[in-house]
Amino acid sequence: MSIDPASAARELLRQYGARGPARPTELARWLGIDVEYVSLGPAIRCALVQEQPGRWVIVVNGRPPQEQQEAACAHTLAHWALHKERSIFVCGRDGRDQTEAEANEFTYGLLRSEVAQRKNG
User: Fold this and answer.
1) Where are the alpha helices (DSSP H) in the chain?
2) CB neighbours of 59 closer than 8 A, spacing ≥ 6?
3) How far from the centroid of its chain's Cα atoms is residue 21's Cα?
């Protein structure tokens, strides 16, 4: 990967023009990514699916509290931003490979930026 995940998150927020808090679901929809909430088992948090070329869907487990759903959406958005070469991601609770670590770092950068914007806004 050529850019670090936290920088990629900040760049995405800059492109979005975030002057205040940018919820991950709103950011995804701005990018043309559909976000769907479905009841999934406890082992699955979220998924990213490329339905057809250029058409992506984020599927979020609708069971956890909304704050956790937003974090899952941000994490899945990270896979879209960083790992588009794969057409599907399913994220559980114990992902420990490099792509999951990068997605977690992106998510932290995105959500940390959101928290900073709330404090400064």
Assistant:
1) 5-16, 24-30, 66-82, 98-120
2) 36, 37, 38, 40, 46, 47, 48, 49, 76
3) 15
How far is the C-alpha of 46 from the C-alpha of 61, rounded, in Å? 6
pLDDT for residue 85 = 84
Cα-Cα-Cα-Cα torsion 67, 32, 112, 79, nearest 10 degrees, comes to 90
- Domain membership of residue 118 (yes or no) is no
Q: Is the pLDDT of residue 64 over 50?
A: yes
Bigger pLDDT: 46 or 113?
Answer: 46
**pLDDT interval class at 95 (50, 70, 90):** low
Q: Which structural domain range is residue 81 located in? A: 5-113
